[in-house]
Amino acid sequence: MGAAAHIHSAEDARRLARRRLPWMVFDYIDGAAGSGLGAERNRAALDAMCLRPRILRDVSQRSLETRLFGSVAKRPFGIAPMGMCNLSAPGADLMLARLAARYQVPLGVSTVASTAMEQLIETAEGHAWFQLYFSGDGRGSFTLAERAQSAGFKSLILTADVPEVGRRPRELRHGFAMPFRIGPRQFLDFAMHPRWSLPTLFKGRPEMANFRMNGYEFDRTESRAKANWDTLKRLRDMWKGNLIVKGVLDVEDAVKLRQFGVDAIQVSSHGARQLESAPAPIEALVEIRTAVGPDFPLFFDSGLRSGEDILKANAAGADFCFVGRILQFAIAAGGEEGLDRLWTVLSDELSIAMAQTGLTSLAKGTVAAAWKRHPIGAGAT
């Protein structure tokens, strides 16, 4: 029996991945800013949300489809942009791209992806959005945006919550760096995890593929602090497709973005990897939905671990959700079979939760009724 057969939840995938991955790689994927209190805060807020069970409703026919920028997506959740996914296993980026194509959901292609954006959008059959970091004076960032537009990307995600890269002590303790460097400690770590290191050695060291351009080098630690509203205006003027701003947790920022003319906002704490003291995104989602009104597109990520979590986010105001590191854990645990297995688990969990809350679809105006409106964070039972 393969490892994928043992994945019955996101936590199973994480547990199996922890056994297989070098400590340095696992802590890079799993880690959060500071001591991890931000991640715990978000998890506690999600756990405190209750769903409203309903009975004697015909829920025998249920649909997980939703509409996203005028197109049908077969699931109400997609793949969050994640850097250096091929650290979880060789070819992970392409596994995610194939999954996006099958379910017609967006693949977030990170600025620091380990596979070139052109190959990923082709493999995803067009179901890919490019995620952009602004860095330095912005010249390289705008070059990447222009390249993404030429490659056929119709949606651009500006990740705006990283003016400086957050300190993640779990990474730092292992000497994690990009570009990937191997010293004596890392070599010993890899030697103790041969099921990961041997295939990775055979395939070659993962690199940041989007920076193989003449005259351009990426420095992960380079300040991104110069980005401002004028930067966003320049991006809005040059980008012809959908423009999404990711990393929004403040109501005033959300209202200004709506007025500014962005096409959607992604409520996110960057998976609690940036500011440890940031509020729980699920709480910010409720406030932002109230502020921007019922019809403005709101997306959500950070800390989603189950289909019930996804339903909670939809009930709290999200039009679409993104899941991230748990997919890398599934790949590390069981390769593409593990990824498919976890995706099925999430889908089944969501479908069952819909049945138990009396829902047959995720249409607006119906999902909100699934939320048992105890105050978030109050420890309701």
From TrEMBL:
Its cofactor is FMN. Gene3D superfamilies: Aldolase class I. Transmembrane segments: none annotated. InterPro entries: Aldolase_TIM, Alpha-hydoxy_acid_DH_FMN, FMN-dep_DH, FMN_HAD. It is an enzyme of class 1 (oxidoreductase). It comes from the Bacteria. Keywords: Flavoprotein, FMN, Oxidoreductase. Coiled coil: none annotated. Its EC number is 1.-.-.-. Residues 2-375 form the FMN hydroxy acid dehydrogenase domain. GO terms for molecular function: oxidoreductase activity. SUPFAM superfamilies: FMN-linked oxidoreductases. Belongs to the FMN-dependent alpha-hydroxy acid dehydrogenase family. This is Alpha-hydroxy acid oxidase.
